[in-house]
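Recall that a protein's primary structure is simply its ordered list of amino acids. Everything else, from secondary elements to tertiary packing, is in principle encoded there. The following example makes that idea concrete.
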Amino acid sequence: MKGTFRVWIQVSLATCLSSAAGAQSVFLGSVVTDGDPAAPLPGAEITIPALNFGARADSLGRFFFRDIPKGSFKVVIRRVGYNAIAINARFSGSDTLAADFALIPSAVALDTVNVLGTATQYGKFLEFEDRRAHGGGAFLTRVDLEREKDRQLGEIVARLPGLKVNRYGAESAVASSRYSGGMFRGGDSMDRRKGAPRGCYSQVYIDNVRVFSSDANEALFNINAIPASTIQGIEYYASREETPIQYASSRAECGTMLIWTRIE
């Protein structure tokens, strides 16, 4: 049945028994369009700023967080072309919370703009352009991504030096091509059941939020969950020594990927 909604946010923070041990909550849900039918929104960004947690919705619009401590935290959901929303969610530290979010399309009328020369970069893109100018890593710009816009992101980044893309089922994850069998970083039992090989999987940041930490037995980050059309630039550093100092923790031993979206 169709209703007349300006905004609907179906937030069913339903408390159910969790299989997770210890005082940690699990948060799972989906992001869809506000309409009938409510189509999934893959690539939507879900963040918990106070915890420095971030994730991207997969091809079915689903997302998942674990190890959330007890407390009340703001959750922000956004996607290019849609109005962002935010809620305050209370986590018990032991239960599973489920939430569904519906985003309303945002139509923005732009005046005609004539551009001469190279566009000036602002905000987060300044760091990207500065590092690209001085070298030291491998880079993909908006122009590069637009040239291969009909391909999945895993296929696009696979050509970067020092990196390999491991496929498992319909998903793909970024790993170091320098792995020689010494250490395993990332990949839980579910990933391995899907066919993910053991490897040294690179840590991944999206807009300075770490979405994959390269910890042992951590669920892999599906690089194909992010549409290339939403990305402004990508940086990849194949080793800890090459990684910019602010990201060069022990987790950088398997490489570091920095993804910058077009949202300023």
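The longest strand covers residues 25-33. The chain is about 10% helix and 35% strand.
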